[in-house]
């Protein structure tokens, strides 16, 4: 990755960019929903839910499919537990990602991860992937009031790094994250 002189940081989405966890989130959410008689299809997961926080997914399920809001808390807890169990078995270091982040560090480029995951899950997955040591900042959905697609997360990451948003390149794989990066004023790469 060639970095322009005015670029001070590269901000990565986690799920789908640094860690291929899309299917893990789908499986974990359905494992949490099944005891209550609900499931989402894989197509619906890809087209509507991928990239959203679990809380956002549950709000959609309640609004559109009458999923009881009283179950949000327990489903969220079960889903996070299942995600960590799946990741513990399937999340391994990707040498290409480690080399990329190491080279960015060597060039003095700040590195951040901005994710709609909760902090506990993000820290665990990044640790399993041996990427934590390269990061200058981690922004999770617990650090902001409004998650992706809102730009708040990217603006916060830039603020924590002490840079302007136009000094950051964002690597995103999803529509929600891409919209957040654009609205924050960051440069974007797919």
Would you report the number of β strands? Answer: 5
* Mean pLDDT value: 94
**Widest beta sheet: strand line-up:** 3-2-1-4-5
Distance between the termini: 12 Å
**SS field, number of helical segments:** 8
**Shape by Cα distribution:** globular
CA radius of gyration is 17 Å
Order of helices and strands: EHHHHHEHEHEHE
The stretches of 5 or more residues where confidence is low (pLDDT under 50) are none
Q: What is the helix content? A: 40-55%
Strand content: 5-15%
Structural class category: alpha/beta
Outline the fold blueprint.
Elements: E1 9-12, H1 22-33, H2 42-49, H3 54-65, H4 72-90, H5 95-106, E2 110-114, H6 119-128, E3 137-139, H7 152-161, E4 168-171, H8 175-184, E5 187-189
Parallel strand pairs: 1-2, 1-4, 2-3, 4-5
Helix pairs in contact: 1-4, 4-6
Brief write-up:
This protein is an alpha/beta fold and 190 residues long. Helices cover 49% and strands 10% of the residues. The model has no long low-confidence stretch (mean pLDDT 94).
Overall description:
This protein is α/β, with parallel strands linked by helices and 190 residues long. The protein has helices at 22-33, 42-49, 54-65, 72-90, 95-106, 119-128, 152-161, 175-184; strands at residues 9-12, 110-114, 137-139, 168-171, 187-189. The chain has a five-stranded parallel sheet with strand order 3-2-1-4-5. Strand 4, helix 8 and strand 5 (187-189) form a beta-alpha-beta unit. The longest helix has 19 residues, at 72-90.
